[in-house]
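Our collaborator T.R. sent over the components below with a one-line note: 'Predict the complex.' Nothing else. No constraints on interfaces, no templates requested, no preferences about which chain binds where. So this is a plain run: every listed entity goes in together, and whatever single assembly comes back becomes the starting point for the next discussion.
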Amino acid sequence: MNEFEKFLAKNETLLSIKNRRSTREFSDQQVSDEDIQTILCAANQAPSAHNQQSWRFVILKGLRKNELAEFVSLKSKDFPRPSSILLRMAARSIASAPIAVAVVNTGELMDRGTELFKVDKNQAHNFFRIMEIQSSAAAVQNLMLAAGSIGLATVWLGILVLVTKEVLQFLDEPEGEFMAIIPVGYALKTGKGPSKKPLAQVVKYL
Ligand SMILES: Cc1cc2nc3c(=O)[nH]c(=O)nc-3n(C[C@H](O)[C@H](O)[C@H](O)COP(=O)(O)O)c2cc1C
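Returned assembly:
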């Protein structure tokens, strides 16, 4: 048993991290408004570059959520395999989950970054874009871990970046940068998910 496994029995945070697995099929069970607020609070609690909190969360339910699923399914026909398959799978996950959370970067850090950080204008765009992406990624992970800790299942859908312009229009966030859609609900079936690489393969000590 490694150190991580030893810890799982006594630390709920580590247990949530270990138990989080992507779920792509959801049951009909609805998610309460209170639970939605809980996971959004967790997302909003994430660290962010220069504390700019340059994220927006758009909640899709009912008709609007289903319209997005239909749009993604339709758009999948414009792409070759395997992108078309991944887009169709994403559409099915969005359709089957009771809610989906879209995460969009506001661009505020990109707008104000040069003045805040006093960096060269030529470096600024790439630097602040990466900072916003990393901040939103932390928020997505917080949301997914919080969801898992209260019995909800999620999957991080990045494939919609392929249709980013249309998705931003759909979300009424045309100025933002689209990050991800996270369907949230109760898992239809639970699986172990793919295995992780051994630490020895991904860690080196200098
Ligand atoms: C940036 C990012 C983008 C992802 N995009 C997709 C996606 O478009 N469709 C999908 O089914 N899963 C997507 N995933 C989920 C991964 O496939 C999943 O995390 C991986 O296979 C490991 O499985 P696990 O989440 O159960 O540990 C994405 C995950 C990340 C972090």
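Summary for T.R.: The first strand starts at residue 55 and ends at 61.
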